[in-house]
Structures are given as C-alpha cells and as structure tokens.
C-alpha cells in the first residue's frame, strides 16, 4: 500500500516522554522527502540536518535519525509510526484524509 497522502493524527502514546528525551519542547514537526534506497538530506525535529538512506523492510519504512530509530507502516488502512530513543517508544497512529 502507498504511504503518500495526507493524514490526520488519531492517537499518540509517550509523546511527552519522547520529546523530553530529545530535549525539545512540545509541538515540533518536520517534513522530509526521500526515495527508498537512495541517500538524501533530512532534518530532525530539532532542525539538525543529516544524510540518511531510508529503507523498506518487510513492508515498513525504516530510517535511523541521529538519536532515534523510526519505522512507519500501513496497518488496517492507518499510518502507524514508531520512534524509539533510549528505551522510550513513541507511537503515532494517523488516518488517511486524501
């Protein structure tokens, strides 16, 4: 299933604790554009620029940011994103709008 589209957040788990681990205040967001398997320029929620290669593993989009690991997958028609840093796992579930 394609990941592209517009989404609206339905639920989040451990957002505050995840942001504390990143040492960022609440409300940060960013958009990164990439092609699977090709190195690209990306940006963290804190504004740090870095190079990464986004991979597709078992139907999941996988990328390592400088200080956390993130996976994204479509489950039951919803976008499920999991980010992990220092033992804290943040989960965001979003529904497709378009």
UniProtKB/TrEMBL annotation:
One Pfam family here: Lipocalin_7
One MF annotation (Gene Ontology) recorded for this entry: lipid binding
SUPFAM superfamilies with a match to the protein in the record: Lipocalins (SSF50814)
Protein name listed in UniProt: Cytosolic fatty-acid binding proteins domain-containing protein
Family in the record: Belongs to the calycin superfamily. Fatty-acid binding protein (FABP) family.
Source species taxonomy: Eukaryota, Metazoa, Chordata, Craniata, Vertebrata
Record domain Cytosolic fatty-acid binding proteins: where: 5-22
Xref: InterPro entries: Calycin, Fatty_acid-bd, ILBP
Residue ranges crossing the lipid bilayer per the database entry: none
The species this protein was found in: Cnephaeus nilssonii
């Amino acid at each position: 299933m394609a990941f592209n589209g517009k989404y609206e957040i339905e639920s989040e788990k451990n957002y505050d604790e995840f942001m504390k681990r990143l040492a960022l205040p609440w409300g940060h967001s960013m958009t990164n554009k990439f092609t699977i398997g090709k190195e690209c320029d990306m940006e963290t929620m804190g504004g740090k620029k870095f190079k990464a290669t986004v991979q597709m593993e078992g139907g999941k989009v996988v990328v390592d940011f400088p200080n956390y690991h993130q996976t994204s997958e479509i489950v039951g028609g919803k976008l499920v994103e999991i980010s992990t840093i220092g033992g804290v796992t943040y989960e965001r579930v979003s529904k497709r709008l378009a």
